[in-house]
Amino acid sequence: MPKQRYYVLEMFPYPSGHLHMGHVRNYTIGDTLARYKRMQGYDVLHPMGFDSFGLPAENAAKNHNVHPQTWTLQNIDHMKNQLHQLGLSYDWDKEVVTCLPAYYRWTQWLFIQLFKQGLAYKKKANVNWCTSCNTVLANEQVEEGACWRCKTKVIPKKLSQWFFKITQYAESLLTGLDSLQEWPEKVKTMQANWIGKSQGVEIEFQIEESTEKITVFTTRPDTVYGITYLAVAPEHPFVLDWIKNTPQESLVLSFIDHVKTQSTMDRTDATKPKTGYFLGQYAISPFTQEKLPIWVADYVLMDYASGAVMGVPAQDQRDCSFAQAHQIPVKALSEDDMPSKEAVLSLIQKTQCGRPLTQYRLRDWLISRQRYWGTPIPMITCPVCGIVPVSETELPVLLPTDITFSWTGNPLQTSPSFLNTICPQCGHKNATRDTDTMDTFVDSSWYFMRYCSANTSEKPFEEEAVNSWLPVDQYIGGVEHAVLHLLYARFFCKALRDLGLHKIDEPFKALLTQGMVLKEGTKMSKSLGNTVDPTTIIEKYGADTARLFILFGAPVDRDLEWSDSGVEGASRFLNRVSRLCSFPEQFRLKEGQKNAVEQMVHITIQKVTKDMDTFGYNTAISKLMELVNGLFLSGSMAWANEQLVLMLAPFAPFLAKELWQKLGHSTDVHQQAWPSFDPHKVQLATHIVVVQINGKLRTQIEVDAKASQETVEKQALEEAKVKAHLHGHQIVKIIWVPHKLLNVVTKPLS
Ligand code: ANZ
Ligand code: ZN
Questions:
Q1: Pocket test for ligand 1, best of 214, 218, 319, 331 (most atoms within 8 A of CB)
Q2: Residues contacting 565, CB < 8 A, separation 6+
Q3: Which residues place a Cβ less than 5 A from the ion ligand 2?
Q4: Which helix (H) or strand (E) holds 715?
């Protein structure tokens, strides 16, 4: 029978140069799982690679005058050594390095497939610009109005950019979350909120003395009798027309210009003042026929729904502060005046002034970056044909080397050899290449598929390999990717499935978000200077100690406080195991202890196996520690030591390998089967029964676990202490609580 497959995946690192403790924790957890699954007989895929495009390499190029590729490959070399030192059992023949042409050629090919499918498109849009990174960012990469990487406040900028149409997958990305039973609720909630599905109604308002209408989107149709104004976004197409040649014109224009410099966050923040102007126009309420003034307001966003709202100051917080600031009336509605949503909806449908509408907060994924060190976007602009893809046989579009790295500007624009090309469609000689590169999150959106057939040079991946290995059985990584990488990768998986490239719906069956590594209560970080270098620990104590401390110090999903004494403790424990197995004559089994030791080992196997299956690595280790304590007291024997070493193997691979050989084996411990326990031996052979006389504790006796009530009674009544109390009494009755208690009720002999 073919072995069952199991895919263990850890988020691959950015090759900054050195592993940090966060990496060590992530990879130790994954490696322990991979080793355990192998011992259980699975065919395990456990690959590693490098997410190796990105800005730091380019900054290094500027600062140290070294080519980004040289810098990156050196870092990869160094980090690979560190990964080896840690004893991480990766399938290195499946290594994926996203910055090498063998990989990015296929990132480009996938881009072209998405383009052909209408899922990649270019449009001019107001985008988030980081002035420090000199590039645009996707919405997901803006955190509280600032760049996720460098924390600089982003500003809006109007640019023509490439987008992936992730919004086409909004609904399936949302409903797909329901099938992810083994994902943390927290991550699923974050994704659902980011997708932001709203069910509401679109309502049209006739503009007075005009044939035009304004469409608003509301989730509260039940509040229509409280509307006192309409408000449109500053970018709304009606605004410029309406203010033309009015006394307000210049005032409103400068207001619009000002709003354009503000982030979405600033504009919609409920605590900030809301500003705007009356546009001199009125709309008619289809419900009350009232005249409603139309305003332009900063808190209305053009890129959400229709870019216009109905103002209900009595019900909505933002409408309320806007109305108060601009002397707009507030129309309070008593509970009784409020119709139901259903009633308004049927009225709307009868009068045909609107329709139900589902709206998503999710925006398309902006993937152009004005940087050098990324996958070149394989598109060409021809004066005749317009925008056309590079012919697939010409891939990869290689990054040129004749580049000037300057502090500003897009480096690829400085390379004439790259920029100028001929049109693949009509042969026109004045065609130019796209000089933007892709967001590095595109690279990491399909690397887990590439691993399944990493060396194929004919296609991005073999369909069969992806279909049989995916979904990843266990994905492990940081929670900071909850709405970035994890959402993009899910989108890619579904989009490539729909392109017919494979058959997988969701890429990651189970997700573990490991906790952070802290020092004195705060996250270890370079900027805080509170890091502990993994290499130092490995050199001082060995990799096994580092691994054991990291797994023992906290449950995998909780934060782990670094502790030097904890590291010492892990080291001491491994030394004890080593002594036990290296000097068996010193720890020879004591007289009469064989059954007890056997039972102790079987119970440990049972409990540790259960912990291994539920990521209870810290409790599994503490059970191994208890076992070792027990064996120090009772003495041990070869079989017990072997079971101990087998159970230790996933945690401390180097020591386990060495001790397995010391125990006389020529085989590799890592190719042994995970030990199994005998259920009969796990059950206790004897019980302690409390013996009472008239409810008072008189003694305890040890009885055979299988003994009948009759046998237990006989044994109890023969006890000297019991006999003494029975003297001069007769037994009235005996109460028996199986395995626990025997109460003898007596009365004096008359
Ligand atoms: C009237 C109303 C009354 C509203 C009330 C809410 C509460 P979500 O849930 O996020 O979809 N809105 C609609 N389009 C907008 C835009 N382009 N810019 C800013 N705000 C916009 O929010 C939907 C609500 O956000 C809509 O429902 C609308 O205000 C506002 F007591 O309509 B509501
Ligand atoms: Zn930045």
A1: 218
A2: none
A3: 130, 132-133, 147, 149-150, 152
A4: helix 709-717
Give the Å distance between the CA of 80 and the centre of ligand 2.
28
Contacts with 717 (C-beta within 8 Å, 6 or more apart), sequence order: 723, 726, 744
Atom 29 of ligand 1, residue of closest alpha carbon: 218
- Give the Å distance between the CA of 278 and the centre of ligand 1: 20
Which tokens hold the place of 258? 């000002």
- How far away, in angstroms, is 130 Cα from ligand 2 center? 5
Q: Give the neighbor-by-neighbor strand order of the sheet with 386-389.
A: 386-389, 379-382, 431-433, 420-421
Please give the average pLDDT of every successive group of 10 residues along the chain, which has 750 residues: 92 94 96 98 98 90 88 96 97 98 98 98 90 86 86 88 97 98 96 96 96 96 96 96 93 92 81 91 96 97 94 95 96 86 93 95 94 96 96 96 78 92 95 96 98 97 98 95 94 98 98 95 86 92 97 96 96 98 94 88 95 97 96 94 98 98 97 94 76 91 84 92 90 90 91
CB of 266 within 8 A of CB of 272?
yes
117 Cα–ligand 2 center, Å? 31
> Exposed, middle or buried: residue 389 (CB in 10 Å: 0-12, 13-18, 19+)?
buried
**Distance from residue 317's CA to the centre of ligand 1 (Å):** 10
Give the residue, out of 214, 219, 298, with the most ligand 1 atoms within 8 A of its beta carbon, to mutate for a pocket test.
219
- For residue 741, the one-letter residue type is L
Q: How many CB atoms lie within 10 A of CB 542?
A: 19
Three-class secondary structure of residue 91 per DSSP: coil
Residue 107 structure tokens: 């990132």
CA distances from 419 to 394, 396, 398 (A): 15, 15, 12
Cα 299 to Cα 310: distance, rounded to the nearest angstrom: 12
597 within 8 A of 653, measured Cβ to Cβ = no
In this structure, which ligand is nearest to the CA of 306?
1
Q: Which residues neighbour 337 within 8 Å (Cβ) at sequence distance 6 or greater?
A: 225
Residue 409 CA to residue 130 CA, distance in Å, equals 13
Q: Three-state DSSP class for 380?
A: strand
Position 157 scores a pLDDT of 87
Query: How far, in Å, CA of 255 to CA of 275, rounded?
Result: 9
Helix (H) or strand (E) holding 345: helix 341-351
How far, in Å, is the centroid of ligand 2 from the Cα of 142?
9
| Pocket residues: Cβ below 6 A from ligand 1 | 198, 217-220, 223, 299-301, 304-305, 307, 309-310, 312, 315-316, 359
| CA distance to 54, 93, 138, 456, per residue, from 50 (Å) | 11, 14, 22, 18
